Structure formats: structure tokens, C-alpha cells
Amino acid sequence: MPVNNRIADFHDEIAEWRQTIHQHPGLLYDVEETAALVSEKLKSFGVDEVVENIGRTGVVAVIKGRKSDSGKVIGMRADMDALPIVEKNDSPYKSKYEGKMHACGHDGHTAMLLGAAKYLAETRNFDGTAVVIFQPAEEGGAGGKAMVDDGMMDRFGIQEVYGLHNMPGVPLGDFAIRSGALMAGTDEFTITVNGLGAHAAMPHNGNDPIIIATQMVQALQTIVSRNIDPLSSAVVTVTAIHAGKAYNVIPQEAQFYGTIRTLDREVRAQVMERMHEVVNGIASAYGAEVDIAIKEGYPVTVNHDAQTDFAASVAKDIVGEGRVVTDKLPVMGGEDFSYMLEARPGAFIFMGNGDTAGLHHEEYDFNDEAIPVGSSYWAKIIETAMPAG
Ligand code: NI
Asked: In CATH, what number does 5-183+300-385 get?
């Protein structure tokens, strides 16, 4: 079965929703406009139940099949939030809010899942219950966790959960997935060197926290290059350094921060251990105090075996065997669908966005041609997992 014909019929309508969402981006949990649009559309489709404000601004809707004897309940999730980026596109549906932009395609994810909800509510050609999940705050706010913490899985009886993300540079309609770790766990570190400042011309009277901090930044590069097994994966990236504010003063303090990405707990623990040893060792060598603060971020996104096989088979049904990669290499980006996968078995899949600018780029735009493929994927997940018989 290729793309669902009925869904292809309302391709233009779904693209219109996508572009409306694109024009009104919201950051993190401030997605009220999009949540309102989602909620209003779902109600107009005649779904069985729409519940707002789960995980603060998340929306969940329930669509019951023609039969519900199977007792199965499957969740499908889209994210609704945008990014703090000034859009550089000149499309007629360019962001109306300067400095906010749908640069990760969550507008497309939301529209495609709405399209599937419309189709499923109209046809009900399945035996069980479909739950559509629209979450806020994927981009660093752990909206997925907020929804899980709000009891979403139990409240709606969700047994399995599926997620999808578009992927620029991958041909339109191609899918990629893997069992096990698909995306990295993310941690943020902040390292503060409390040293002894001095007159810039009398450096011997202090211990110069700038020199100490820059040595730490250099030494941290050896964790990945010299401590982690070359066949394992880790990232330690320093993204900011702050110290001083005068030409003639050595400051008292230097601070730098960044991100750690790993694909399993053991490597993560090894990175943490070495980070403490290296930083504390350098601080002690120069007689400075140091504070290391770690903020645990999203867990590793781990796909479950059976659900990964199932998701891949559904994708193959739509676009053909040759267009679904099932041994995709993991990506070191993070994804908060990981919290839902910790709560229930499921799978996260990538779908090609064609030759567009990359994710989080000021010229990125979700490819509306992908809509029928993505919406068909969602509809087919439900109709295949819970066949009407
Ligand atoms: Ni994203």
C-alpha cells in the first residue's frame, strides 16, 4: 500500500494547517496558539475526547475504532514548539513573531498527526483505541517528561507509543530507524573556577583563573580522544567561556559550560568521572577552587525491538522496502520522546525532508510534500497494529 488516497485528498488542507502553525511559533511551553489550533481541529474532526493542559500546554485526543474488542491502545506523539531563531525565509507563511521560528519542523509533525487524526476519526477502520499526543517544550524543556509525569500513560491506558522526526538531507519519503539507542542522552555542565585575581601587570600576585579555565577546556578534549574506547561514542563540547571585564585586571573567577552526549550509562559515567578528575586535578595544580555542576538532560532515546520492527514494516508498506533503512547509525542529538520510551515500549523513526536546510537553521523549512507520507505512516500504524478484521 502506498500513500493513503483519502489522506492525499486533503494534502492541501493539512499543508494549510502547517503553514498557519509556522506563522505563529511558540517557544517551549508557550505554545498556546498552536495548542488551541490543535484542540479546535481535533474537536471539529469529531474525535471521542480532547484533553488540554496535560504537561502544562500539551493536548491529547482519543479516537476509538469501529470496534474496541482488541483492548489495544496505541499512542502517537508530535511536538509543537519552535526555536528562538530569526527566520530568514521569505515564504508567504514566514513567522509573524520576530526571533521565533519553526526551524525543527515541529509544525510539520503537528500537522501530519492532525491529518492522521482527521482520517482516523472519519474512517474508524480499526479495532482498538488511538491516542494522539501533542507535546510542548521538546527543545530543552522536557515537555515529554511533563506529560508522562502528569500521568498521561495511565490515564489514557497507552500500551505502546510511537514518534517521528523529519530529517533534512534524506530523500523525501525515505525512512530510517534502528533498534536500541537511536539518539544520545544529554547532560549540561557548568564549571566555575574560583581563583585569585590580580593587577594585570602583576600576575604573580594571583593564580589567573583564565589560564586555569583554558587549560581545563583543552584537557577535557582528551576524555573523548584518550579515555573513551574509539568504538564507543561520546561528545564533550564547551560552548561558552565567561571571565573578566577589564584590560588591566585579572579576574577572580572564570566560568565555562557545555554539553555531554553519550549513548549508554557506562560511557556517561566514565565521562563524568574523568571530567571531575581532570578539572579537580588542574584546579589543585594551580591552587584554585572549582565547582562542577552537572544538569542531567534528556535520557538516551532507546527504541524497543518489537516496536522498531513493526514501525519499519509499516514504513515499508507505504514507501517500499528499499526506502527504509533499519540499521541507521545513532545521532548524537537528544530527543525528549526518550521519556515516553522509558514509560512504554515504542519506537522513534526518522523521515526524509528532502534537500532542505538543516534542522535549527535559519533557512530551514518543513517540506509540505512529506505530509501525505507522514500522515499515512500514522494512519497505517493504527490500522495495522489494530486491524478491524
Ligand atoms: Ni525537533
From this structure: 3.40.630.10
